[in-house]
Amino acid sequence: MTDFLIAASLFLIALTVDSPKLRCFPIAIDPSPFPKRSKIAIFDCSACAIQEVLRFYKCSNESGASGNHLWKRFPPDIQEILIVLFHSQYKPLEKSRKKFPVPIYQSKVGNTFRDWTKNWFYSLLQKIKKESPFKLFHACSVIIKYDLNCTLFLLPHLVVHALLDSTEIEKNEICTELLTVLRHSEQSSTIDDLCHLSSQIVFSVVDHLTKWIHHYQNEISLKTSGRSLGPRLSQDKSFHSINICLSSIPQILLAKSAFACQAYARSLMHLEKHLKEFPDQLGNSISFIQVLFTYS
C-alpha cells in the first residue's frame, strides 16, 4: 500500500488548484465555473484529503520516524507543498449511510457519467468494513464530488477492497453494476458519452482485477516454494472474492462491448481469451471475427 500513498498523494496534489494555503500550482480542476464559495470549498477539500492520507500513513519529515522513509520518496518540490499539512486541522465530515439502487448505472443517481462514478464510489465505500482501507478511501472521498480524475484513479482500487471486504450480496451488487454497463454498451445501437465512458471504467476495473489476481498468485507461489497452487488458492477467501467476480464477466461480453466502443484491440484480446476458454465456440464466432478484423 505504500506505493498507493505516493500515487494517491500526487494525484490529490495534482488536482489542487492554486491556493495561498497550499502554495500549489498543478491544475486538474478548473475552478472558473464554480462560484467563489465553491472555489474555497475545492481548496479546503483538496487540502483535507491530502492531510488525511498523510496522517493515515503516518508520513513524517522527522528523521527516524516510522513514516520518514515515505516522506523521502517525495521530490523536494512536493515536500514543500505537503509539509504545511502536517499541522493543519481539517476535519472531514462523516457521511450518513445511504441506500443506493442496484444497479446505480442509468438510475436517477447514475444517469450522467459524473453522477454514476461519484455515487458508485460512495456505494463501494459503504461496503468496506475494515478500518484501515475505509479510512484511506474515506479520506479521499471528500474531493470526489469536485474532481473526476481522482475518482477514476481510485475506483479500481476501491473495487478490489470492496470485493475483499463485502458480503456475498454486496459482491453480487458489484458484479451486477459491472455487467449492466457492459450489456448496455453491447446492446446499444448508438454509444453515448455515459455508455462509452462508463464502459472504459469497467475495462479499467477488469484490468486491475486481472493484475491483482496475477500478483496474488505470484505471492502465493513464492510462499508455497513451487508446490501446487490449486489447493492453496481454492481455500483462499481473498483470491476467491476477486476471481469469482472476474469469472462472472464473460470474455465474449467484454469483446462485444469493447467493439461497440471502438476499442478494437481490446475486443480482439477478449475474443481470443473467450475462444481459448471455449474453443468449440469458434464456429459461432466467425461472423464477429470477420467484422472485427475489418476494423482491426
Please describe what this structure looks like.
The protein is mainly α. Helices cover 64% and strands 0% of the residues. It is built from 14 helices and no strands. α2 runs antiparallel to α6 and α8 crosses α12. The longest helix is centred in the last third of the chain and has 31 residues. The chain is globular and about 65 Å long. The two termini are 38 Å apart. About 8% of the residues have low confidence.
Question: What's this model, at a glance?
Answer:
With 296 residues, the protein is mainly alpha-helical. It has 14 helices and no strands. Helix 9 (193-223) runs antiparallel to helix 11 (237-247).
The helicity comes to 55-70%
Low-confidence stretches: 13-37
Proportion of beta-strand residues: under 5%
Order of helices and strands: HHHHHHHHHHHHHH
Amino- and carboxy-terminal Cα gap: 38 Å
Work out the number of β strands.
0
Structural class call reads: mainly alpha
Average pLDDT, rounded to a whole number, is 83
Tally of alpha and pi helices? 14
Gyration radius, in Å: 21 Å
Morphology: globular
Biggest β-sheet strands, sense, barrel: none
